[in-house]
Amino acid sequence: MNKILITGAAGFIGSNLARALVSEGYEVIGIDNLSTGRLDNLSDLADSPRFAFLESDVSKESFLERPELERVREIFHFASAASPKFYQADPFGTIAVNTSGTRNLLQLALRNGAKMVYASTSEAYGDPLVHPQDEEYRGNVNTWGPRACYDEAKRLGEVYCYEYWKQFGLAVKVARIFNTYSDGLRQDDGRVISNLVTQALGGRDMTIYGDGSQTRSFCFITDTVNGLRRMMDREAANGQIINIGNEKEYTILQVANLVKELTNSPSRITFHPLPQDDPTRRRPSIRKARELLEWEPEVELAEGLRRTIEAYRNRKDA
Questions:
Q1: In which element (H, E) is residue 104 found?
Q2: 1 burial type by CB count under 10 A (0-12 exposed, 13-18 middle, 19+ buried)
Q3: Does 261 lie in the same domain as 227?
Q4: Helix/strand/coil for 5
Q5: Residue of 150, 164, 181, 312 marked active site
Q6: Segments forming the whole domain that contains residue 26
Q7: 150 is a catalytic site residue
Q8: What is the pTM of this model?
Q9: 253 and 266: one domain?
Q10: 94: which DSSP letter?
Q11: Do 146 and 272 fall within a single domain?
Q12: How far is residue 18's CA from residue 177's CA, in Å, rounded to a whole number?
């Protein structure tokens, strides 16, 4: 059975993927520099003989010298802050992990004859002028603003992946991940689902930035993990960029009202200035994922929110 490396393993998506793979008997190495990831996310794997954790920074070339990496045959590269709150607090680290870090991991894949999935983002489309966004759309990204350190670093990471596929025939695939959620999101990371749920459960004002008419498409974590695993397994995904997300589009105000209803919360919904370059619409086309991966999400937003709310409520009561 293949030895699998997950970077950003102490983060939201990485820890969920690690848990799924270990439960199925895979040998997994998790790497994280713990800048935004938390070891608590991996606490249930601490005693597993099939999981090893390395605290390391993949943007430093020295990490490639670790002997534990010798038999790695699959690489999931998730290392990077993903919330604007955190990537804007460390712009140079965000740029480094998605550029130098991505190149280091591509070198490891080339050295080991491994396959690699690079976690890019729907932010690669910027504030899109085309709806829904398919993988051929080149985006509308501002290179001179507070989100550019993340958006443009991810885009350059994609370029590195393209060159390693084109020049060396490396089996690398790029996943443009749209908003993913569940109770595993950090409650302090500033993203919309975690914000609204924790505020509603606490009876605090529920904050909406802008007038709430901006839209997002939300994908539950189990669906995202399944899509990423199919990308790794399918040869048809080699050398491809593929959207991983849910096609159903909701306004932020719709989401806030749904959370308020599901939590039976007395919280007020309040409105605040929209941050610079915050996209007004976001919705993926997943035609390519259906065709190449035979994948599409299964969990509806209301059901995913119910699971998320229940888990947050139980954590709060513990």
A1: helix 91-112
A2: exposed
A3: no
A4: strand
A5: 150
A6: 3-180+219-246+283-299
A7: yes
A8: 0.94
A9: yes
A10: H
A11: no
A12: 17
